[in-house]
């Protein structure tokens, strides 16, 4: 993106975590929006076969987390992992069969989510330790004081199309526009933690619940209308938030594929360009 920033003033830290297991309790079943019980995989562990650019909906899953689900076993360190890790950061596996292989942070959910090729994921297991090169929190766009940057590595920012237009607005390309009524679980939370689940993307469930979001892909950049994610997440008319879809299919009502927050501010500060190719897969570092 052709834009001035304070990227040369950012601090890089090495954070650690481990691949966390899928968890459950004795109350196995949940119910979908129509009241049907379900028991489906989704959160935690190593999830194969779903990567940046793949469909986010239509799979038999609940709260699908692509790739590696990573957290730290110390609660305070885990919060730091969530807050400081940014989309596009490089992750290196440091134990187990896949030691030395790398992946890329694609967002946050209950865990930090890491995409990697399936041949790497096949050699990774629960408990394997990872090292994250965390850089991005504190990033500012010096010519756009009304735009707040969240969870975005400067490397991804550099590769995104758009930038500062002659009229002073920030041009950002998105694959989909999300109406305000689609914002579900995640409202009220810090925008550096987890993501925003989008309602209305219940592929294969009730047609009357559709908001036209069934074609979302993992990694799609989307704009959430009338959403302010500057300090928390909430409804604010005349504001927009740009995020990247980091989680997939949900069967639980009020939940759905979710974007991790990248940019937020008054709508007049942005020039939003509809671009079906706007996906994180085009902007991550090739060596990750």
TrEMBL record:
Residues 29-157, 164-283 form the DUF4438 domain. Pfam families: DUF4438 (PF14505), DUF4438_C (PF20999). Gene3D superfamilies: 2.40.10.170, tm1086 (SG structure) domain, tm1086 domain. This is Uncharacterized protein DUF4438. It comes from Phycicoccus duodecadis. The lineage of its organism: Bacteria, Bacillati, Actinomycetota, Actinomycetes, Micrococcales.
